[in-house]
Amino acid sequence: MTKHFFGDTAVLLGRSLRHITRSVDTVVTTTIMPIAMLLLFVYVFGGAINTGSVSYVNYLLPGILLITVASGIAYTAFRLFLDMKSGIFERFQSMPTARSSVLWAHVLTSLVANSISLVVVVLVALLMGFRSGAGVLAWLAVAGMLILFTLALTWIAVIPGLTAKSADGASAFSYPLIFLPFISSAFVPTGTMPGPVRAFAEHQPVTSIVNAIRDLFTQQPVGTDIWIALAWCVGILIVAYFFAMNTYRRKIS
């Protein structure tokens, strides 16, 4: 059964990846907004924001990476919605195919596409002056955190992809996720925010994830932030996976 699942997922993943390679503009589009925000905040607003001894591009990049993922998963919901409306799911169910492999193919495609977008954004940040003395283990830790974050948000994206009534509705859910980093430590230190906003910013998941990635990049002790960040990512992933699979079972039953 396990072999059947992995084989089916690999075949369907190849199908989804071929769609990506035929529309490279999808990956390009998901990187345009994060890069534009990186340019805007570093070159326009960066001089007015005090981040201490850390250059603003170094301070800003972790939050921009999360926005890149939040922007990219909208396309996962969109592609899933198109498959639902085209009837391809019914065709797969009439074949001896592992049921969950259809969803996993979309999720893994999202992981590949978002990884490419993240690499592009990091390369642009390097051109803008981003520097990190982090070692291999720290970079691997950052990559692992971003993979967990991508998987968690992608499984959230599966739900509107399965339930939306229109293509716009399938991707619109990502807007609050893109906005969330603005009320966190991603762009400015939370200490500069008014009381209620600061309280929310300091206790929402993006802040702990951004702080952990930033500390890894700058070779600072990560403290409890990394464990809080991991707890948020794993918790969201488990809950989103549960609801996505339940939604999927109801749709195909």
From TrEMBL:
Keywords: Antibiotic resistance, Cell membrane, Membrane, Transmembrane, Transmembrane helix, Transport. It is found in: Cell membrane; Membrane. Pfam families: ABC2_membrane. One of its GO terms (biological process) is response to antibiotic. InterPro entries: ABC2_TM, ABC2_TM_bact-type, ABC_2_transport, Nod_factor_ABC_transporter. One of its GO terms (cellular component) is ATP-binding cassette (ABC) transporter complex. It is a multi-pass membrane protein. PROSITE patterns: ABC_TM2. GO terms for molecular function: ABC-type transporter activity. The chain crosses the membrane at residues 24-45, 57-82, 103-130, 136-158, 170-188, 226-244. Residues 25-251 form the ABC transmembrane type-2 domain. Belongs to the ABC-2 integral membrane protein family. This is Transport permease protein. It comes from Planotetraspora thailandica.
